[in-house]
């Protein structure tokens, strides 16, 4: 993996593509965020990327993101300055300027909007994130494992409303922020988890932006060579092609500020497992065969790729008839700790399964 | 009406009683707020009351209150220091200390909790309020008519969560605060509408605390003389005895952070109007005869009194079998302006009626 040191306008295609891949179906539409970042870079200058060891211990690192159901984000485009408004309101509350921007998660929107904010604010962005993928809830970040508080957190919307949250723990932050998001019409811009550089270095998952850019480049170059990127991604990332098939049913509802539902994928050949069910809450959380056997489960990554082009498909893009590859990836080892699984394991989401790593599930059928 | 200049522990009985009367069925349980204020006064000292002309123009006046459905407030007792926490968080956000406390409305809880806060904080309280009665929503205050912004507003709960709201208008403040209240479990403490003394003098309804204390004293002295206070209150306040009867049906639901419903009251004698229906959203909003003719409507006050003792009855205390007097009072003239009726007239609450003053409705049947 090559380390990325600066993000120019031309890099945004790969970053949007790689972000959408690690977004595991969630994390928002890559196209909108890419346009926002491209415009901001053109209007200002390329964004410098800080590797972990380049961060000053006493600097102020601020993650910014869009929060809400991806289904809503598609219809409620950011005006462009709400994210900056959230950053500025948090800085005002803290009485201190941010030194660098940080991505709370990997995803089409939340790997790109922070770059737009960094460009507009003239700040560098950190090569790391809080999830190494996308998750649906605010407290589901490595920072929670390292006792970094999500608050003070600022939420702002396109009308000009701004709220500052100070809650007793990160799960409470999620609960309050979620109802406020719904009241904002389903999506809002957030600035949260303000951290010192020392805290960020301890708590973050490193090199995520470099990984995202690399994944995007692989997808694009394989597409250019008329090859499906899945094989090379599997080789480069220890990934696993779990299933191939056609989407035959998508059940989707926006409830409580989330896009929840499931999709059925029927095998293209007369396989032993003829149907795979993907369950999601913004992100794909579990892949189950028709006899209820899981092939992959959260926090491992379940990515959906177009069978022909290898293009990542988000949960809201999924539709009847799509021919897809279901692709699995082991998550960051931090998520497999006891604390990690409490935060993002299958049982937190209400599934009965105890977590088993994707490597185990796919080698011991 | 005698002007009250200081509130001692012994004064709290009358204030709780008078507050509950002007609460028109809402404004919370007078007993809890009275205990909180009595304890705070005993632990500190009596609270000085500032008449409008004693307020410095550049002082900082801060209303504090409990927000939520009265049905929930009954079961979710304030711990005692959340209201102070809300005040302190607002002061911290503003970078300025409050000079005096203010009551946002008249009501059992919201005429007494501010006194507890004033006692605990060692501050005087203003002889005035924002409604001259209780209303269910935050923007329904005289301050809105005078362009005073509800924000920055702080909300805090007994767990230690605190949120600062900065919204584009007072109706948006209500909408965000309402969903946050629900997430707090149905009720929370608030500090909002921070005002300069000059703004407070212009926007407030004057002498409310003196009126409340006077009403409470009348109710108590009439009760002591074994007389129902309704007649003397009618004479003193230009009030109207609208109906007497027995509660035969109460339909009540807690929805969207409000206690909504209606009660049927059957006449005790063979009157022409045998049944009166009271519709409420925290407060009584409309009194209608069985043929749909209104006898009184918001913003005029509809108060429910025990037929035997004259004790005010809140919407959550109302129960089958209660023998009651329905008592009406003209509202503050400010509410009868065009802007006032937009904020709190019957059509805002979804009723078809155009507002007619209680005096007109009861003299031209």
Keywords:
homodimer; 365 residues; alpha+beta; CV3147-like fold; CV3147-like; 2 domains; ten-stranded mixed sheet; seven-stranded antiparallel sheet; 31% helix; globular
How far apart are the termini of chain A?
32 Å
Helix percent of chain A reads 25-40%
- Any idea what the shape of chain A is? globular
Rg from Cα of chain A: 19 Å
- Mean pLDDT over the residues of chain A: 93
* CATH architecture grouping of the largest domain in chain A: 3-Layer(aba) Sandwich
Instruction: Name the quaternary structure.
Output: homodimer
- Please provide the ordered H/E string of secondary-structure elements of chain A: EHHEEHHEHEHEEHEEHEHHEEEEEEEHH
**Structural domain count of chain A:** 2
Low-confidence stretches of chain A: none
Account of the protein in words:
2 copies of one chain form a homodimer. Chain A is α+β, with helices and mostly antiparallel strands and 365 residues long. Chain A has 2 domains: 6-208, CV3147-like domain (CV3147-like fold, 3-Layer(aba) Sandwich); 229-363, CV3147-like (Beta Barrel), CATH 2.40.390. Helix content of chain A is 31%, strand content 27%. Chain A has 12 helices and 17 strands. In chain A, strands 1, 2, 3, 4, 5, 6, 7, 8, 9 and 10 form a 10-stranded mixed beta sheet that branches. Chain A has a 7-stranded antiparallel beta sheet with strand order 15-14-13-12-11-17-16. In chain A, helix 1 (12-22) runs antiparallel to helix 2 (30-43) and helix 2 (30-43) packs parallel to helix 5. The longest helix of chain A has 17 residues, at 208-224. Chain A starts with 5 loop residues before the first strand and ends with a helix. The interface between A and B is medium-sized, with 19 and 19 residues. Strand 7 (162-166) of chain A pairs antiparallel with strand 7 of chain B.
């Amino acid at each position: 993996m090559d380390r990325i040191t600066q993000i120019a306008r031309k890099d945004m295609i790969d970053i949007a593509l790689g972000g959408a891949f690690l977004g595991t179906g969630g994390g928002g539409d890559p196209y909108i965020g890419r346009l926002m970042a491209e415009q901001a870079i053109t209007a200002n200058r390329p964004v410098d990327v800080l590797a972990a060891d380049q961060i000053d211990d006493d600097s102020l690192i601020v993650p910014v993101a869009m929060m809400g159901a991806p289904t809503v984000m598609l219809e409620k485009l950011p005006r462009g300055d709400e994210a900056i408004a959230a950053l500025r309101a948090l800085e005002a509350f803290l009485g201190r300027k941010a030194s660098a921007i940080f991505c709370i998660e990997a995803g089409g929107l939340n790997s790109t909007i922070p770059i737009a904010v960094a460009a507009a604010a003239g700040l560098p962005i950190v090569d790391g994130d809080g999830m190494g993928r996308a998750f649906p809830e605010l407290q589901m970040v490595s920072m929670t494992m390292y006792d970094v508080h999500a608050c003070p957190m600022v939420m702002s919307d396109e009308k000009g409303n701004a709220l500052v949250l100070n809650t007793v723990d990160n799960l409470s932050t999620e609960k309050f922020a979620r109802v406020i998001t719904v009241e904002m019409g389903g999506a809002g811009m957030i600035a949260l988890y303000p951290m010192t550089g020392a805290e960020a270095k301890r708590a973050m998952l490193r090199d995520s932006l470099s990984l995202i850019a690399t994944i995007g480049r692989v997808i694009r170059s394989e597409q250019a060579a008329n090859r499906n990127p899945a094989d090379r991604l599997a080789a480069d990332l220890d990934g696993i092609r779990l299933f191939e098939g056609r989407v035959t049913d998508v059940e989707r509802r926006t409830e409580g500020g989330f896009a929840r539902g499931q999709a059925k994928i029927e095998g293209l050949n007369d396989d032993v497992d003829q149907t795979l069910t993907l369950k999601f809450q913004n992100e794909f959380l579990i892949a189950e065969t028709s006899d209820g056997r899981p092939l992959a489960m959260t926090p491992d990554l379940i990515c959906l790729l177009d069978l022909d082009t290898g293009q990542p498909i988000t949960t809201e893009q999924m539709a009847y008839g799509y021919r897809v590859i279901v692709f699995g990836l082991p998550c960051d080892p931090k998520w497999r700790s006891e604390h990690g699984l409490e935060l993002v394991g299958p049982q937190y989401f209400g599934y009965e399964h105890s977590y088993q790593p994707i490597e185990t599930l796919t080698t011991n059928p």
